[in-house]
Write the structure tokens for this entry.
Amino acid sequence: MLNNVTLYPKDILALVGRNGSSKAKILKALQLFFDASQKLVNKVCFYNHNTAEPITILITFNELSDWEKEQFKAWIDGEKLIVGRKIRCSGEDYNPHQRQDFGPGRPPLSDQP
């Protein structure tokens, strides 16, 4: 399980670390967040392969431009934009899942197939 991972991407970002240091998990979480395709979700994505609990991914965007602050003002918390996604999976041999997007000041959306 990953908690409180901070990345400061600029033009180029490299993840460096020993085997088992969660580099691939960070990339998988970003991939699930930005493209929660049914093809990407399986039991391996879930902590201890427990598909009963959803995957929750929160991304905090800092250093927002004035334009971004204006565009996303309904979801801004102080000086940060916090966006989240919950991904649920059911079934043993297939990956039908539901996802839920949420953020501060915004009620959770109904689950989407």
